[in-house]
Structure to design on (188 residues):
């Protein structure tokens, strides 16, 4: 497969992509994106700095039970992720650079090293930028994202902390996800 015919996650994971659980492979191999929905819990940091940074990043409010709707679109090799937590939209753009998966959200960008452990996708934060300015390592958010695949979807557990602030957000729940099989915009 040529580099240009590979999806974003295939380019970032390279040979490790084949180690992903088949459900995650199917989702991340679609050139048209994907989607899903499921119940989640959202926990937010409570100190003033955490709240301010969460507001700047457009993070959703805390909720014990909220329906999350996921929609992923692909455009020119990048992926545009729209997650709606109840009525709260959270948008990001993902792209590859220097072997990292970069995720842009508001004025912030985090660079992740992706790996596969026991078929599950693991994100490890390595770099970060705010307003395009590289942040020193002690400001880089500590991001733990882990998937656990079931029969008809995957459990997602995502937590973001900043060393000098503490918890920004922790959201966890189950997504019933499916790849898009065709470009819906061209079906009209």
């Amino acid at each position: 497969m040529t580099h240009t015919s590979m999806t974003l996650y295939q380019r970032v994971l390279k040979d490790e992509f084949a180690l992903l659980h088949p459900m995650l492979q199917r989702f991340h191999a679609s050139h048209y994106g994907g989607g899903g929905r499921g119940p989640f819990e959202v926990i937010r940091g409570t100190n003033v700095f955490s709240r301010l940074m969460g507001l700047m990043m457009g993070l959703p409010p805390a909720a014990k039970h909220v329906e999350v709707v996921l929609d992923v679109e692909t455009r020119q090799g990048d992926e545009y992720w729209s997650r709606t937590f109840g009525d709260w939209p959270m948008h990001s753009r993902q792209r590859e650079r220097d072997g990292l998966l970069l995720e842009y959200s508001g004025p912030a960008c985090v660079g992740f090293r992706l790996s596969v452990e026991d078929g599950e996708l693991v994100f490890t934060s390595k770099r970060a930028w705010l307003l395009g300015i590289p942040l020193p390592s002690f400001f880089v958010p500590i991001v733990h994202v882990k998937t656990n695949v079931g029969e008809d979807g995957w459990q997602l557990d995502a937590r973001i902390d900043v060393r000098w602030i503490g918890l920004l957000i922790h959201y966890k729940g189950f997504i019933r996800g499916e790849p898009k099989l065709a470009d819906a915009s061209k079906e009209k």
